[in-house]
Amino acid sequence: MIKLQNIEKYYANKGVKSYILRHVSTEIKQGEFVSIMGPSGAGKSTLLNILGMLEEPTYGEYNFMGEDVTALKERQRIELYRNHIGFVFQAYHLIDEMTVAENIEAPLLYKKIPGSERKSRIADVLDRFNMVAKKDLFPNQLSGGQQQLVGIARALVAQPSIILADEPTGNLQSAQAEQIMELFKKLNEEDGITIIQVTHSEKNAQYGSRILTIEDGVIKEDISVNGL
Amino acid sequence: MFKLNLKIALRNLFKNKVYAAINIGGLALGLTAFVLLLLFVNHETSYDKWSQELKNVYQLREYHDYATPDNRQHWMEANESRIGALVTDKIPQFKYVTKLGQGWGDGFSVKPDNANPVIVEDVRDADSLFFKVFPYQFIQGDRLTAISKPNTIVLKESLALKIFGTDKVLGKRLNIIMWRDDPGTMMTVTGVVADPKTPESVKFTAITHTGDREKDPDHINSSNHCEIYALANEQLDTLQMNKTLQKVYVDYKKSSFAKRKITFDDYYKNGKRPGLKIIPLKDAYATPSFDKNWMDKIKPIVALSVFLLLVSIINFVNLATAQSVQRAKEVGVKKVLGAYKKQLIIQFLIEAVLQTLAALFICVILVEVLLPTFNNHFDVQLTFWHSEQLPSLVLQLFGVFALVSLLAGFYPALILSKYNPVKVLKGNYETGFKGIALRNGLVVIQFIIAVTFIIGIGVMYKQTSYVANKDLGFNRDRLLNISANYNVGDPLVERIKKITGVKYVATTTQVMGNSFNVPGEITYKNNDVEVNTVTVTMDALPALGVQVLKGRIFSPEYKQDTVNTAVLNETAAKLLGKNLVGEKFNQGKNIFQIVGIIKDYNNEGFDKAVLPTVYRVTHLGGMSSTNNMLIRFESDNYTSALKAVEAEWKRTYPNFPMIYTSVEDAFQKSMEATRKQMQIIGLFSVISIALSLLGLFALSTFMAKRRTKEIAIRKILGASDFQIINMLIRSFLVLVVAANLISWPIAFILTRSWLEGFAYRIDMPFWPFLIATVVSVVIAVFTVSLQARKAAVNNPVDALKYE
Ligand SMILES: Nc1ncnc2c1ncn2[C@@H]1O[C@H](COP(=O)(O)OP(=O)(O)O)[C@@H](O)[C@H]1O
Ligand SMILES: [Mg+2]
Question: Pick from A64, B143, B361, B600: CA 20 to 30 A from residue B701's CA?
Answer without folding.
Answer: B361
